[in-house]
Amino acid sequence: MSVSHRKPNAFPKAQHLRRPADFRRVYERRRSASDGWLLVYACENGLPHSRLGLSVSRKFGKATERNRLRRLYREAFRLTRRELPAGLDIILIPRTSDQPSLEDLQRSLPRLVKQVARKLTSEARRT
């Protein structure tokens, strides 16, 4: 008898945005929202869940510093994804090399993603 060890708060590969074509599609949609910590791009993905992509440029420091930012932003997404609208491809871009607290990101991320989702739905209604 095999027991499934599903982790309810895991971040499976199906929720990662990896292919360059997917990133390009989100950027070409040109729907974004931002605050002092974060710039969020998003577009619909036609899936029952949202996917996350991270774009952290070299201006944020060495690889270890960029990876720390990625882990922090990924964790904020993982902890708040139930508050986020489903069916979006989301790209997060840090605005400053200062490292925000996880709590700051947990407040900021849902608000910004909901702003972008509103822009996408209002645009869909107009067409």
Q: Could you characterize what this model shows?
A:
- With 127 residues, this protein is α+β, with helices and mostly antiparallel strands.
- It has one domain: Ribosomal Protein S5, domain 2, CATH 3.30.230.10.
- The chain has helices at residues 20-29, 63-80, 102-126; strands at residues 32-34, 38-44, 51-54, 88-94.
- Strands 1-2-4-3 form a 4-stranded mixed sheet, sandwiched between helices.
- Strand 1 (32-34) and strand 2 form a beta hairpin.
- It is globular.
Radius of gyration: 15 Å
Q: CATH top level?
A: Alpha Beta
Structural class: alpha+beta
Estimate the mean pLDDT confidence.
88
CA-CA gap between termini: 53 Å
Order of helices and strands: HEEEHEH
| Low-pLDDT sequence parts | none
Spatial order of the strands in the main sheet?
1-2-4-3
**Beta-strand segment tally:** 4
CATH topology: Ribosomal Protein S5, domain 2
| Major sheet attributes | 4 strands, mixed
Strand content: 15-25%
Q: What count of structural domains?
A: 1
Overview features:
127 residues, four-stranded mixed β-sheet, 3 helices, single chain, alpha+beta, Ribosomal Protein S5, domain 2, 4 strands
Strand-helix topology:
Layout: H1 20-29, E1 32-34, E2 38-44, E3 51-54, H2 63-80, E4 88-94, H3 102-126
Parallel strand pairs: 3-4
Antiparallel strand pairs: 1-2, 2-4
Helix pairs in contact: 2-3
In short:
With 127 residues, the chain is an alpha+beta fold. α2 crosses α3.
